[in-house]
Amino acid sequence: MLGLISDPAKVGQLAQLKMFSLASTNSFNPLQEKELLHIVKNHLTSKGYVYSEKHPDFVVSIDFAIDPVQVSGTTFMSTSTPGTTSTTSGYLGSGTPSYFSATTTTPGQTQMVPIPYSDIAYHRAITINFTSPEGIPLWRGEAESTGSKSDLLVVAPYLIKELLTEFPRKTGKKTGRYVPVK
Hints:
Layout: E1 2-6, H1 11-16, E2 19-22, H2 30-46, E3 50-51, E4 58-81, E5 84-92, E6 98-106, E7 109-131, E8 137-147, H3 152-165
Parallel strand pairs: 2-3, 2-4
Antiparallel strand pairs: 1-8, 4-7, 5-6, 7-8
């Protein structure tokens, strides 16, 4: 799910921004923050923005989290019991008995059996903040996803790309998007 916060009145101003710098704000995991900012930097420079520590038009910072979550539910499994066949034979009557044989078949049964399951998924969240050099908020994009990948750096390039596609103007795409991760 993507969330974007930008002032529509500032869209024209945002389009004028060309030079940016990066700001480190995460003391919990500075190495991962550096990797994520590097992804943002590469994406912005590929869009024509210029990295400048001395004269930025805007400053980029990033917040992030990844948390394991318990996922549980019920799935169903089909089980079958085989049918049975029985044969009865013998003699009937008095005097001259007659031989007989009878076969009966009982069909098997198929039923759906509920099977509870529990697994771990990972909820990931990334927020990219653009501020003026004076600290005034200009734009913010938030992305969240849940899936089986426990390494944020595997999923982050996809989330960051989707977020920065919406800068400086919103594309009009739905905020709930399916983005395959390879």
